[in-house]
Amino acid sequence: MLQGSRILIVDDEKAMRLSLSEIFSLRGAAVTAAADGREAVEILSQRDFDLMLLDLKMPGMSGMQVLEVAQKVRPGTVVILLTAHATLDSAISALRRGTYDYLLKPCEPRALIAAVERGLAKRNEFLRRQNLVGLMEQTVSALKSDT
Asked: How far is the C-alpha of 4 from the C-alpha of 137, rounded, in Å?
């Protein structure tokens, strides 16, 4: 499931970025890492990703601010928020704003991998639906031009 997937890891903690990058690279994902929210936004403006692992609390631009930008420039990207500073309010807010999952640091690698695999399955379903809509639009256009 991870093979060939494009994952963006955004965390201000270097050790966390390296660990997550290693976990997913070893499983065949193409991983890009960003050290803060501004770098993540810049990367998102240039490339598409299947999934983003996003730290909630970062200096400068918070994870929630990155999430808002990501939803505008890359609406199909699945976002999983990671935080060591969890509150019920931030979890509810994140889920209401469209994050796929909200995980607490430190997170067991198996649980993290499972969450990412579920997120990628959601992404694949999104892409499949987009393709179906495109095919339906082509069919309607073809039918209209035949009449």
From this structure: 29
